[in-house]
Amino acid sequence: MLYHLTSHRDLGLELVDIHVGPLPKPTHFRIHKHLLCSRVPYFAKMFNSGFIESEQNLAKLSDVDPSIFALFIEYLYGNGRLPPVDIKVSTTNSGPVIDRIKLYGFAEKICLTTLADYLITNLISNLRHYERSPSREGILLTYQVTRPGSPLRQFMAASLYFIMRFDTEETPWSSRALAECLRGEGTEDLVVDLVRITRRLEVEGRAPHGVIGGGGKGSAGGGGVGTEYWGVDPRRGSKCRWHTHERGVECGLQGEIL
User: Fold this and answer.
1) Contact 35, 76 (CB under 8 A)
2) Mean of the per-residue pLDDT values of the chain
């Protein structure tokens, strides 16, 4: 699979081949080496450090989903951006939102913080714009594909705290739905993160006191709840608190990125 984007300059002439997915039929990607290595230190080390990959200009990523790697390449050739999320084709367990969660996991794997920060900004922007909360499937997927302490994990745990506090039984996040989410296989880290957030905001009394208008249909804060605490709703406030860059660094991802 060879990508072209004429608006990119200085792509270079050299190409590398990457076989993605399990044997016996991985998907073949052919990518401009300069673009890949100049944007992603993980691949720069792989193709420029004397490893066998650099001698053959060939790499194999057998544990990566080809569809998610294709989205990663789309991000590279799109100058660090992806097409807007089509919310109409997003379901609770498939579509562009779920794919971006999977891509976030890949970004952590290759230590590409710029991609991770972009993706979490994109996710928060869409959730806030459409007044939606993360789905159960999205939360559980996050804890499957990301590392302990991941900013995306922290965002999802904060979202679940907010849902637990402000959603009602008439929403998709009923008490039973919350219980089922927390007792599923592999949810130990999620439960721990949720307890930490609850202890910090409730037990230690550090919940902020300012209140703002309630959420819309389909979101935590809807269903008759008229107020939300600023800072408790993780979709609001500075997105930098969910980024991996150092504090105080100028960030170009503060706007809404749909």
Assistant:
1) yes
2) 85
In the prediction, which pLDDT does 110 show?
Answer: 97
Assigned token pair, 191: 């439960």
Question: Edge-to-edge, what's the strand order for the sheet holding 58-61?
Answer: 27-32, 15-20, 58-61
Q: What distance in Å separates the CA atoms of residue 255 and residue 251, rounded to the nearest whole number?
A: 10
The three-state secondary structure class of 254 is coil
Angle between helices 113-129 and 66-77 (to 10 degrees): 90
Q: Which two tokens stand for residue 142?
A: 């996050």
**Cα–Cα distance, 13 to 163 (Å, whole number):** 51
CA dihedral 149→154→156→160, nearest 10 degrees, is 120
DSSP states of 79-133 as a string?
Answer: TS--PPP-GGG--SSSSHHHHHHHHHHHHHHTT-HHHHHHHHHHHHHHHHHTT--
The residue that leads in pLDDT, 223 or 32, is 32
Q: What are phi and psi of 139, to 5 degrees?
A: -65, -50
Q: Which amino acid is at 129?
A: H
- What band does 204 get if pLDDT is binned at 50, 70 and 90? low
